[in-house]
Amino acid sequence: MADSRAWELVMRRIEDDLASGRLSIGDRLPAERALAAELEVGRSSVREAIRVLEVLGLVRTATGSGPSAGAIVVSRPEGAMGALIRLQVAGRGFDVTHIVSTRVVLEESVVAELAGGGVDLAAPAALLDRMDGTPDRDAFLALDASFHLSLAELSGNSVIAAVMAGLRSSIEGYVLAGADRLDDWPAMAARLQEQHRAILADIDAGDTDTARRHIHDHITGYYAATNLIPTTKA
Amino acid sequence: MADSRAWELVMRRIEDDLASGRLSIGDRLPAERALAAELEVGRSSVREAIRVLEVLGLVRTATGSGPSAGAIVVSRPEGAMGALIRLQVAGRGFDVTHIVSTRVVLEESVVAELAGGGVDLAAPAALLDRMDGTPDRDAFLALDASFHLSLAELSGNSVIAAVMAGLRSSIEGYVLAGADRLDDWPAMAARLQEQHRAILADIDAGDTDTARRHIHDHITGYYAATNLIPTTKA
DNA sequence: CGTATGATGTGGTCAGACCACAGGAGGATC
DNA sequence: GATCCTCCTGTGGTCTGACCACATCATACG
Hints:
2 copies of one chain form a homodimer. With 234 residues, chain A is mainly alpha-helical.
């Protein structure tokens, strides 16, 4: 995720200023020409960055002169819409923690319920096998989503299954955004598969507590590895 | 939403082509220079539009020549991230239905549980009163979200409450996106308040079925009125 | 004191020029 | 004939410089 393109550098810079507090809501950005000079890029690159930030709702522009002109920082990293959008664009974290904690709560109860009754884990196991033969990252992650969803369905808790189905695409978005930030995808895929199989083994053995812990680490570990949430040791 | 700016015109044009099927996934866009000539705008305007579409995931760019170069239509209405993004930018509907149905499932069970036991509805009622004195749309909707969330918390179902809390900002995003498409906001606000109070009355009266129906209509009605989901009569 | 009027600075746009890169065409080589 | 290499072409990415329309503000004028 290097700022290979000039406009990305500009955008990143502005976002950094916003995240670090150098820019606050309502502050006025330097003029496009000044920004271009300062960052040593062309004005067109600055404009492309501003355009993106404007569409993202981070900045508002106005023509003319005086205090009300120029590009002004408006919105905040608040709101899932903003967070999702920023995530995809800038690869930043913000409040992904929300959805991650939601996932953890849901999936922990899923595996707990599964570990209780003797269910047939053939379907999720088959998905794992398919994933082993899927080097393509995005295809792998789609199967991964199916795997987690199949667990939810097997749990018999229809509410959780429905919620997770509804969340599927959101979660996939975060997961993909995170994957973009990984250097060594094959290593991560191997790690995920290892954890997946450990969880299935836990369920099969009826070891509720271990299953909870494993799925907790599985989920938070992924987001932590992708730097989407703060790394937490516990 | 006039295409007052040239780059908006370009973006809209491409989005229209995509929506109408004139452009399909994988199709290659004309070269930037050709597009500029065709639409009679400058290349920089085309670039700003392309930049936005790229960030939105609708288009992919690559340098060089040959079939793999140029801007290529790529992503689709799939995924909540894409849906949210398209929604905000293009005002189009796509698959909001997913999150709406999730909300309905969740909130129906919430009011059902509330109608069962005798809980203190003072907190949500107070929120409704505050909303009456809140003409500002966004502030009103923020309170609205708090209202629904307070119901979830009162229900005592911690899983649902957690999920709804996690979803809050996502839902708010959709709700706001929908509100943008309403002509007469005050009328909608009044209608929402009427429905809110009816639901509280249902809960107070212990009328589970009516409460379910009312909250169902309340939620689906809003999204239908904003044309975010197909209008369904039932 | 109030009202025109011009100066100033801003975003919005355009045209033209490079650059780096990917792919294909076509020749050189075996 | 098949293979490799080289050059050419077209593309996005960028920069520069130039206008324009517009909002604001200082100034001059009545």
